[in-house]
Design a protein that fits this description.
single chain; alpha+beta; 9 helices; 16 strands; 21% strand
């Protein structure tokens, strides 16, 4: 895990975008699209100035919920076989934590912690991720369908990022459900702050310093693309000739209807390829996907949705869109080998020393 300062990150993103010559338009929501057959001509957005239309040769849908591709008529799937999506979570940070006390408690009560929480190296490696406090969690009886406590330390020496809240059974593409989830997420944060302060070693003087800008959504629409990445592809560490990104993160499915997490790890601790075809929607001509809405099954999306994967997908989709625009071609017709060479030149990890 790599802790970072969110306020610095916000500034850095703007700086990087400006250095790259990006024209930014904030506080704007997509409301409709303009189509010529299967070709997307423009995207209408609504903002403080009213309604305006953005035209382009190629569009990248990085909305998370695939809003643009959905409005353009692309086919999509959502959730598991029953249509249920993974739960939402309101992450939050606490400061004033005595991590030395957490460490000492873990040493005295190893049975209370997940075996992969770095407990075997306490005292020799910095404490980064903690999953456990199981008996304390069960005794508290909080109305949150989780099995235990999960938090990550840093970047400050008294700071942790907590991933414990869980809002299940709601559809994030429905505004009423998303509103209810946002409210419930903040309610759970208050419950959890009191629980941590009263029950968790090292947190007696800690306090909530920040909550997410909005509730965290793990899963909504998954657009059907030229290739649908599946769970077998992931777990077998499959490679593809049109690889544009890789991930070593396991399949990590938070139970859509209760507590628990289903985790399945990649064969031999390896990694899997994400093919370019999973960024190309079926049925529309000039749209690329990036982020958690790419073409996958419910199982595969439980790993491609992670931040590092989404960053790699965005890099690939951006370069591919530039290639298609420069060539005035359909996104299906760009030379994938050239895309791979540009990605590698920019430092992307494609799992191969050279692209033929």
């Amino acid at each position: 895990m790599t802790p970072f300062r969110p306020e610095v990150f916000k500034w850095l993103v703007f700086r990087m975008l400006q250095e790259a010559g990006v024209k930014l338009l904030l506080h704007s929501l997509v409301v409709e699209v303009q189509m010529s057959g299967k070709h997307l001509d423009g995207v209408a957005v609504w903002n403080k100035g009213g309604k305006m239309t953005i035209e382009a040769r190629v569009f990248v849908d990085a909305t998370g919920d695939a809003d643009v591709a959905y409005l353009a008529g692309a086919s999509f799937e959502q959730g598991n076989e029953a249509g249920k999506v993974q739960p939402m979570t309101m992450k939050f940070r606490m400061k004033g934590v005595r991590l030395d006390e957490v460490t000492e408690y873990m040493k005295r009560h190893p049975e209370e912690f997940y075996e992969k929480s770095l407990i075997s190296e306490l005292g020799h490696l910095p404490l980064t991720g903690v999953m456990g406090f199981y008996s304390k969690w069960r005794q508290a009886g909080l109305p949150i369908p989780r099995d235990g406590v999960l938090f990550f330390t840093g970047p400050e020496p008294d700071e942790v990022l907590i991933n414990v809240s869980r809002v299940s059974g709601l559809d994030p593409t429905k505004p009423e459900d998303l509103t209810a989830a946002e409210i419930e997420g903040h309610e759970q944060v208050q419950l959890l702050e009191r629980f941590f302060r009263s029950d968790i070693q090292g947190f007696s003087g800690a306090y909530v310093s920040q909550t997410g800008a909005q509730i965290g959504v793990r899963e909504t629409r998954r657009i059907v693309g030229e290739y649908v990445l599946n769970g077998v592809d992931v777990l077998s560490g499959r490679t593809f000739d049109d690889v544009i990104a890789r991930s070593g993160y396991p399949i990590d499915i938070h139970n859509p209807q209760g507590s628990g997490v289903t985790a399945n790890f990649i064969k031999d601790g390896g990694a899997y390829d994400i093919p370019y075809r999973s960024l190309v929607p079926v049925g529309v001509e000039n749209i690329l996907l990036a982020g958690r809405c790419i073409s996958t099954t419910h199982e595969a999306q439980a790993t491609t949705r992670l931040t590092s994967s989404c960053m790699a997908l965005g890099q690939a989709a951006g370069i591919a869109a530039a290639l298609a625009s420069a060539r005035n071609s359909d996104v299906r017709d760009i030379p994938v080998k050239e895309l791979q060479r540009k990605l590698r030149a920019a430092g992307a990890e494609l799992g191969r020393k050279e692209v033929e």
